[in-house]
């Protein structure tokens, strides 16, 4: 089995809760899979379920069963699209990977409205929505660019680019956390991660894989990372 197919299968297995992960980690360690790729697969596939289980378990403890189900389903759609984007990026289907991110952005545009219309807005909904946003507009776009432009084999440029990719994800995480503890008055402070992820997806769709695009992608990640944590004001449309 080639490395790409094995990575995809490994990602799906790690994503499924309840399977014996320690044995799988040992088996994967005996394979020729790149250690950095393996660490990325492990981190991306396990971290979301850890956060989701804590959030959902807390809400169930207080008996909010119906809101938990509806909110979880709404967030799950965006989350799944982010996961599909990551899988397609590993399979080098970059067009589909970008399309999944853009589709998730269109869905994210209305999930809050649906929750308010059904009167099921809650702190849990905000946390799950943030989790889905981090995967679909933080991790997925970063991995799409990282894999498409082959940062792993670019030497020092790849290391610098990887640092900016990580700073983009960290800035997105900070932006989401800050939004969750703030009162929203119709004006965003800092560019939303949904907008940032969509810009990166569109960039990937419209640029070839060459040295100029690689440099532009690094600049773009640095710029978006800054804009997400800046004081830049953006009115919600």
TrEMBL record:
A Pfam family assignment: CDP-OH_P_transf
Gene Ontology CC, one term: membrane
InterPro entries according to UniProt: CDP-OH_P_trans, CDP-OH_PTrfase_TM_dom, CDP_ALCOHOL_P_TRANSF_CS, VTT_dom
The keyword Membrane appears for this protein: yes
Keywords: Membrane, Transferase, Transmembrane, Transmembrane helix
Biological process (GO), any one: phospholipid biosynthetic process
Molecular function per GO: phosphotransferase activity, for other substituted phosphate groups
Boundaries of every VTT domain copy: 7-58
Transmembrane segments: 68-87, 93-110, 131-149, 155-174, 186-205, 211-229
Gene3D superfamilies on file: 1.20.120.1760
Domain of life: Bacteria
Family: Belongs to the CDP-alcohol phosphatidyltransferase class-I family.
Protein name as annotated: CDP-alcohol phosphatidyltransferase family protein
Organism of origin: Clostridium aciditolerans
């Amino acid at each position: 089995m080639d490395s790409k197919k094995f990575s995809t299968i490994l990602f799906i297995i790690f994503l499924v809760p309840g399977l014996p992960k320690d044995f799988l980690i040992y088996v994967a360690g005996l394979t020729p899979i790149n250690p950095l790729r393996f660490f990325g697969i492990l981190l991306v596939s396990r971290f979301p379920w850890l956060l989701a289980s804590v959030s959902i378990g807390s809400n169930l403890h207080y008996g909010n069963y119906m809101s938990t189900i509806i909110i979880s389903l709404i967030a799950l759609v965006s989350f799944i699209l982010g996961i599909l984007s990551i899988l397609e990026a590993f399979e080098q289907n970059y067009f589909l990977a970008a399309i999944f991110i853009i589709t998730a952005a269109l869905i994210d545009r209305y999930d809050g409205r649906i929750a308010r219309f059904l009167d099921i807005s809650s702190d849990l909904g905000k946390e799950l929505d943030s989790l889905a946003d981090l995967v679909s507009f933080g991790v997925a776009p970063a991995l799409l660019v990282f894999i498409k432009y082959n940062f792993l084999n670019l030497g020092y440029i790849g290391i610098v680019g990887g640092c900016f990719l990580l700073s983009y994800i960290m800035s997105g995480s900070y932006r989401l956390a800050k939004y969750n503890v703030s009162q929203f008055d119709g004006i965003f402070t800092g560019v939303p991660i949904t907008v940032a992820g969509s810009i990166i997806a569109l960039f990937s769709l419209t640029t070839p894989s060459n040295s100029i695009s690689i440099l532009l992608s690094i600049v773009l990640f640095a710029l978006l990372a800054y804009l997400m944590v800046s004081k830049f004001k953006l009115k919600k449309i």
